[in-house]
C-alpha cells in the first residue's frame, strides 16, 4: 500500500523530536508498504477514503514513538477485513465507518489502517466522506470535555425548575470550539463563546448556538462567573479564566496541548482557586461517543466544517495548511486517499 511516513532526520546527531520538530518536507509518500491484517477479534482493517491534517502534530511526542511513523488519527472509509470474519464483530466487510485511531498508533495517512472496534462506528448517512473524517478527533474532544465537567449529553432538555447551567468556551470558533458550542447548547447550557474577534466570529458563533459572544480582551471586565469553563487556547487566556469560574464548585478544563500541567503551574503563581476542578486531558475516543455524535449529525443538529482538501500525495502541504500557513478559514483540512 501507499502511505505517508515521517522520515528520520538526515543528521543522526540531531534527531527529530518534540523539541526539534521535523519539517513538513520529512512527510514522504512511500509505496510497497505491507498492508496490516487483523490478528485479534477486536481489530478491523479499514480502507481509508479520507483522513485529516491536524495542526502541530509534528510537535507531539507520539509522532516520534518509532521511526518511519505513519501520522493521522481521524479516518473515514470502508471495512476491508475483520479478524477471521468473526461473527462477533459489530462490523463487516463493506461497512462504511468513521473514527479515530488511538493517539499511540495513528497511521491513518495510508490506504489502509488497522483500528480497534471501539475506535470506530458506522458513518452517519448525512455526512460526506470529507465531513465524516472531520468529526472524530475534534468533536470527541468536545464531547469528553463536557463529560469531564459532569454535563450529560443524553438529557439535552434541562428541568424548568432548575437554574440554567452556564459555560464559557475559549477558542470557540476553532476546531474543537465549534463542537463545544453546539454540544453545550444541545445539553441545555447557557453558552458564552469567547474568541479573538466578535466582528469576525460573533455572528458565526451565534448561528452555532451561542447565547453570547465576547472577545478575550473584554473577559477581565466581566462580573459573571461560570459553572464550567472549557479552554482551547491556553496562555494568558487560560490564566484569566480563574477569575471567571464559580468558586467552590466550578470546573476549569483545558484541552490546549501546552497546558498539560496548568493546575500545578497556576498554583505556583498563586492564581488557582480553591474548590475548583482543574483538568487537562487528552481525548480517548469511543464508539459510544461516535454513535452519539453520528446520531446528532443525522438529526441535522451538528454542523461540520471542511476547510480544504488535498490528495495523499500532497499531505505535507495539507499539514502546512492545517498549521495556519496559506491563509485562514474555518474547519478541518481533509486528505483524500
From TrEMBL:
Instruction: Fetch the Gene3D superfamilies from UniProt.
Output: Medium-chain alcohol dehydrogenases, catalytic domain (3.90.180.10), NAD(P)-binding Rossmann-like Domain (3.40.50.720)
InterPro entries reported for this sequence = ADH-like_N, ER, GroES-like_sf, Lipid_raft_assoc_Zn_ADH, NAD(P)-bd_dom_sf
Record-linked Pfam families = ADH_N, ADH_zinc_N_2
Can you name this protein? NAD(P)-binding protein
Domain (Enoyl reductase (ER)): residue spans on this chain? 22-335
Write out the biased-composition intervals (Pro residues): 9-24
Annotated region Disordered: where? 1-28
Amino acid at each position: 500500500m501507499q502511505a505517508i511516513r515521517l522520515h528520520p532526520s538526515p543528521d543522526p546527531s540531531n534527531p527529530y523530536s518534540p523539541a526539534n520538530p521535523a519539517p513538513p518536507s520529512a512527510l514522504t509518500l512511500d509505496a510497497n508498504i505491507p498492508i496490516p491484517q487483523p490478528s485479534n477479534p477486536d481489530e478491523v482493517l479499514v480502507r481509508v477514503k479520507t483522513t485529516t491534517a491536524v495542526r502541530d502534530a509534528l510537535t507531539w511526542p507520539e509522532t516520534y514513538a518509532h521511526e518511519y511513523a505513519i501520522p493521522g488519527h481521524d479516518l473515514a472509509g470502508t471495512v476491508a477485513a475483520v479478524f477471521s470474519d468473526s461473527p462477533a464483530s459489530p462490523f463487516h466487510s463493506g461497512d462504511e465507518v468513521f473514527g479515530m485511531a488511538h493517539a499511540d498508533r495513528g497511521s491513518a495517512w495510508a490506504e489502509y489502517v488497522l483500528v480497534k472496534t471501539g475506535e470506530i462506528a458506522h458513518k452517519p448517512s448525512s455526512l460526506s466522506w470529507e465531513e465524516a473524517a472531520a468529526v472524530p478527533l475534534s468533536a470527541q474532544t468536545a464531547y469528553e470535555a463536557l463529560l469531564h465537567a459532569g454535563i450529560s449529553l443524553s438529557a439535552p432538555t434541562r428541568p424548568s425548575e432548575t437554574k440554567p447551567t452556564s459555560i464559557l468556551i475559549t477558542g470557540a470558533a476553532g476546531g474543537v470550539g465549534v463542537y463545544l458550542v453546539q454540544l453545550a447548547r444541545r445539553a441545555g447550557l447557557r453558552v458564552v463563546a469567547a474568541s479573538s474577534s466578535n466582528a469576525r466570529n460573533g455572528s458565526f458563533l451565534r448561528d452555532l448556538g451561542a447565547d453570547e459572544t465576547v472577545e478575550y480582551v473584554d473577559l477581565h471586565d466581566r462580573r459573571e462567573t461560570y459553572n464550567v469553563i472549557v479552554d482551547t487556547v491556553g496562555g494568558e487566556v487560560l490564566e484569566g479564566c480563574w477569575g471567571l469560574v464559580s468558586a467552590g464548585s466550578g470546573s476549569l478544563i483545558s484541552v490546549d496541548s501546552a497546558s498539560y500541567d496548568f493546575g500545578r503551574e497556576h498554583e505556583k503563581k498563586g492564581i488557582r482557586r480553591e474548590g475548583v476542578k482543574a483538568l487537562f486531558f487528552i481525548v480517548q475516543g469511543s464508539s459510544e461517543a461516535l454513535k452519539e455524535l453520528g446520531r446528532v449529525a443525522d438529526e441535522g443538529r451538528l454542523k461540520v466544517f471542511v476547510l480544504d482538501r488535498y490528495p495523499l500525495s500532497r499531505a505535507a502541504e495539507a499539514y502546512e495548511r492545517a498549521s495556519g500557513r496559506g491563509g485562514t478559514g474555518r474547519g478541518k483540512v481533509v486528505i483524500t486517499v
